[in-house]
Design brief:
Chain A is an alpha/beta fold and 278 residues long. Chain A is 34% helix and 23% strand. In chain A, a hairpin with a 2-residue loop joins β4 and β5. Classes of the chains: A alpha/beta (278), B mainly alpha (251).
């Protein structure tokens, strides 16, 4: 499959603090790409550069063939961005929020589109209430609905499930999968390993300003073969033999594969359970 | 671009209507002030050729115009510190539309609050003798003042860290009208204060409105000074606001 997003050697510093030190990756059209990293790893900065909101200090980035630095207007037309915090207008109703975006995207019938999206996202009843009164899960649904208006190629979701309860998180996962099956390319950032594993076709781990590892969840795991066990005892006849003689039988012998979590911590070089940030 | 402005205005206008208490306060405070001044101080105030209501209406108007602009700067500030602004920035829309939408909504709201204030003034004894031409000039001056003070408010909204700093500074601005010929004659003020009161930008504006409303001659180039001051403030505030806003669009 062809790449819809190409990023090469992206660099960005805020004052003297280098956030991105040469980030490169490709995102395939129609897939779910997860940029995985701890707080402050530079995930949001990467999204902001791709969405043309932040100027990079160096490198190249393009979306749908448009240069993110030189063809901002075309890039903006082919994407939508849902931020970490609700990107809705609290003083407007859910319906009005959808109509607002529809009008700004110059779509043909904003009201009809709003009605359809309210139905699709199970917000019909709440449609005429101010969006500031919505629960966290409803706000996210409205947010995603707003992102779909104007048929963007790429949908950026910056930590789409941060702050959601487990039930709403699962519902969001379903939504993301559904968007992908309708042909969208999803670019999401997350600090949750299980989220990247459950959703993404391709995962890139961003750590200390670089992509520390990338691949499918399976590929990432196979990079770290583990489970080999070597036990040496000073007693020659062999422990297995002794166990057998003692009447113990092994029912099943299995090599344990590393979890994505093991991979993540191995990659970033921290001890598992270190600061609990991931 | 025109469509974007129209849409942003529609949004800002709905936002304005959803905060009726802000609109009500911007009318109520000056109206109460006016009634207190006319009924409590009016009797003991010597304002020369005027009845006190006729004297104080221009000062009250300035107060209304400043108060009314406050919610616009607050709105801009709150928008820009919230998620919806991220969405706007990530969309291919005219970068001027967001601010212009706010300013047009503010203009219409302020025209309405001004009309209500004039209505209250008429009930309280305001008896203008201005002719049709005078009223047109008054309207022109008020429109100029509204745009100038609204862009000032929007500028605060763009550069201030939070909404309460915006409203705090504008509350101070609304008090400045007391240090002008707006509420009381300046003759009895201490020398320094009197100098400030007679030369600050609100002074020629108030003097012009008062002369026009009461069919008096406008003296000392007051009309020209009012136009220069507020026209100048409008241009400067417009330019610095656009520059500050552009900076906020890319971080």
């Amino acid at each position: 499959m062809e790449s819809i997003i190409s990023v090469s050697n992206l660099k960005k510093s805020f004052k003297s603090h280098a956030v991105l030190k040469g980030v490169s990756f490709e995102v395939k059209r129609g897939g779910i790409f997860a940029l995985l990293g701890s707080n402050g790893a530079g995930k949001t900065t990467t999204i902001n550069i791709l969405a043309t909101l932040t100027k990079a200090d160096g490198g190249r980035a393009s979306i749908s063939g448009y240069d993110c630095f030189a063809q901002k207007s075309s890039v903006k037309k082919s994407i939508s961005l849902t931020g970490q915090y609700a990107t809705t207008d609290g003083l407007l109703t859910g319906r009005e929020n959808l109509i607002l975006i529809g009008k700004l995207k110059n779509i043909k019938n904003p009201k009809k589109t709003a009605d359809e999206l309210l139905k699709k996202f199970n917000l019909v009843e709440a449609g005429d209430k101010l969006s500031s009164t919505y629960s966290g899960g409803m706000k996210r649904r409205l947010d995603i609905a707003m992102s779909l208006i104007g048929d963007p190629d790429v949908i950026f979701l910056d930590e789409p499930t941060t702050g959601l309860d487990p039930q709403n998180r699962l519902a969001m996962w379903e939504l993301v999968k559904e968007m992908q099956s309708s042909g969208k390319t999803i670019f999401l950032t997350t600090q949750y390993l299980e989220e990247a594993e459950a959703l993404a076709n391709y995962i890139a781990i961003l750590h200390e300003g670089k992509i520390a590892a990338e691949g499918t969840a399976e590929e990432l795991k196979s990079m770290f073969p583990s489970g080999k066990m070597k036990i040496t005892f000073d007693d020659d006849p062999g422990i297995i033999e002794k166990l057998k003689n003692a009447g113990l039988k092994a029912l099943n012998v299995e090599q344990e594969r590393p979890s994505l979590e093991d991979v993540f911590f191995a990659t970033i070089g921290h001890e598992k359970g270190g600061n609990g940030d991931v | 671009m025109f469509n974007d402005i129209k849409t942003m205005f529609w949004r800002s206008w709905i936002n304005t209507l959803r905060m009726p208490e802000a609109v009500a306060m911007s009318v109520a405070i000056p109206a109460i002030l006016m009634l207190v001044f006319i009924n409590v101080f009016g009797g003991s105030m010597d304002v020369g050729a005027y009845n006190y209501a006729n004297f104080i209406v221009p000062g009250i108007l300035v107060n209304v115009l400043v108060q009314s602009s406050s919610s616009t700067g607050i709105g801009v500030n709150e928008d820009m510190t919230k998620g919806i602004f991220l969405r706007f920035r990530s969309m291919d829309i005219s970068s001027a539309a967001f601010l212009t939408g706010h300013v047009i909504a503010a203009f219409i709201k302020t025209i309405l609050t001004t009309t209500v204030t004039i209505g209250v003034a008429l009930l309280a004894g305001f008896r203008p003798t201005a002719g049709f031409g005078d009223w047109l000039v008054i309207l022109g001056l008020v429109v100029l003042f509204i745009f100038a003070i609204t862009w000032f408010s929007v500028w605060l909204g763009v550069v201030m860290p939070d909404a309460s700093s915006v409203s705090g500074i504008l509350a101070l601005m609304a008090i400045l009208v007391f240090l002008s010929p707006g509420m009381a004659p300046t003759e009895n003020m201490p020398r320094f204060l009197r100098y400030f009161a007679e030369n600050q930008p609100m002074a020629p504006f108030v003097n012009s409105l008062r002369a026009l409303m009461n069919n008096h001659e406008i003296t000392d180039n007051n009309l020209l000074l009012a136009i220069l001051w507020w026209g100048g403030i409008l241009v400067v505030m417009f330019v610095v606001t656009i520059l500050a806003y552009r900076k906020r669009l890319t971080i």
